[in-house]
Amino acid sequence: MALIFHHGLLKDFTLILDDADDYNVIIQVGENQNIKEFRAHSVILRARSLYFKSALSSNWVTKKDNMIIFSKPNLTPIIFDMVLRYIYTGELDLTEQSGENILNLLVASDELLLEELFIHVQNYLIIKQTNWVRENFVFVLNTVFRLDNCKRLQDYCLESICEDPLQFFSSKSFLSINKEILLGLLKRDDLQIEEVVIWDYLIKWGIEQTPGLGYENSDRAKWNYKDYETLNITLNQFIPLIQLAGISRADFFDKVHPYRTIIPTHIYKEIEEFHYKDSLPKTTILPTRAGLIFKSNIIKPKLAKIIINWIDNKDTMYIRNNRNDPFYKFNLIYRSSRDGIGSKSFKKKCNGRVASLVLIKVKNISKIFGGYSSIGFNSSGDDFINDNGFKFYNSSDNFIFSFEDGDDTQNMKISRVINSSHAILDYYHNGFNFGQGSLSMSYEGLHVNNTCSNYENNLNTLTVYTIEEIETFTVNR
C-alpha cells in the first residue's frame, strides 16, 4: 500500500513560497499606490496554471539578469496572495474575506485558468455568501456576466431576482445594471411582479442611461421631440419584451400612454385596440409571464400559464392583465428520475391534503398528461381508509388534461370532474387515481380510461402507457 505524506509536502511548499532564494519570477501586482512584488518559481506556476504555462513562455514577459519580470496590474495584492498560496499549497481560507474580495478572486481564477479554484469560489459565493450576493446583485452580475464559465452564479442571481424582483428593481444600484443583463432578465417567464411595475422601472433605467436626460433633464414636461427620440434609441430593444397586454387599461393610460412616441407604432396601435376594442393583438407578443416559479423538465413555463387559467376557471388563453389575478408558486416535491419511479415512491413524497399538480411524460410518444387536485392525491396517513383499502375524496375543482408535447399551446385537452364525490380515489395500488381510473398511476403504468364517467370524456384513450417521467408540485397562491 502506498504511503501518502501530504502534510509534510504542503509544509515544504509553503517554505518554498515564503523563504526560498532560488525564485526566477518577479510578479508586479496592482497599480498606483497599491503595488506589491511577489517572488515565485516558473516551473511551479507553469505546472499549476495553463495561463502561466503560456504566458511565461511567450513574449509577454521581460527578462532582466535571467529574472522573469511579469506584470498583473488588474489584480490586487490581496487577491494574488490567495492565488499564489493556492498554487503552491492547494490551500484556501475565505472565512475572513469580504464578499468583494471573494468575487474578485473568482474573476482572477477564471483569468488564470485555475478551474478547480474557480469552481470552489463560485460555489462558496452561492452557499456561504448568500446574503452578500443578494444585497449586491447588480455588482455581482455586472462583474461576472461576461464570464462564460460562471453560468451557475449568473443563474442563481437571476432566479433569486425573479423570486423577489421588487427588491432588485427598487434598489439604487438597479439604474447601473448592464444592458445585456437587463435584456436577459426581461426575457424570462418567471418574474413575480406586475408588468406595469417592470415598465415603470425600465423607463427610470432608460432615462438614467440616456445622455441629456436623467438628473440634468428630469422634468418630462420640458422634454422635446429629440429627448423622446434619444430615449427611444436607448429602449428600442426592450419595448418588445414588455408584455403591454398584461398592463391594465387604467395603468396603460396613466403610465404607458405618456411614452407612446418611444413605442413602435404597430405595437402601440395593437395594444390600444386591445384595451379599448377588446381585439387580440396580431403581431405583439401576448403575456407569457405568469408570475410564477415553475421548474419543470416536462413542459415549458408557457404551458404552466394555461394550467393556471384552468385552476382559476378562466379561458385557456386568458390574458392575465388584472392586478387581482393571483401569483402562483409551484414547489417541486417529486420527480421520478430523482426520487424513484413507482406507486410507492409517489405516495411517499406526495401525501397529504394539499393542492397539487402532477405531470406525466410517457414513453414512445410526445404526449404529456397531467392532473390538478385541490385536495392532493393521497391521505396523510391519519384519514380513515375502509376495509377494502380505498377511500374517495370530494372536490369540485379537480381536472385532468393533456398536451401534444411539452411546448404545444394549440392542441391541449381538459376534462373537469363531473362526479365531485369521486374526484380522487386513494387506493394502496395507485400512486394517484383521478375518478377511479380516468387518469391513474399503477406501478410504472399510466391508465387513461374514463369508463366510470367521473370526469368529462375528453381524454379517454383506453390505453395503458409506460411512464418515462413524473413531476409533482404543490400549488400555492
From TrEMBL:
Under SMART domains, the record lists: BTB
Q: Give the SUPFAM superfamilies listed for this entry.
A: POZ domain
The record, for InterPro entries, names:
BACK (IPR011705), BTB-POZ/Galectin-3-binding (IPR051481), BTB/POZ_dom (IPR000210), SKP1/BTB/POZ_sf (IPR011333), TLDc_dom (IPR006571)
Per the database record, which ranges form the BTB domain? 23-96
Q: Which residues form the TLDc domain?
A: 297-476
* Entry-linked Pfam families: BACK (PF07707), BTB (PF00651), TLD (PF07534)
Residues in the signal sequence:
none
**Mind telling me what this protein is named?**
Serine-enriched protein
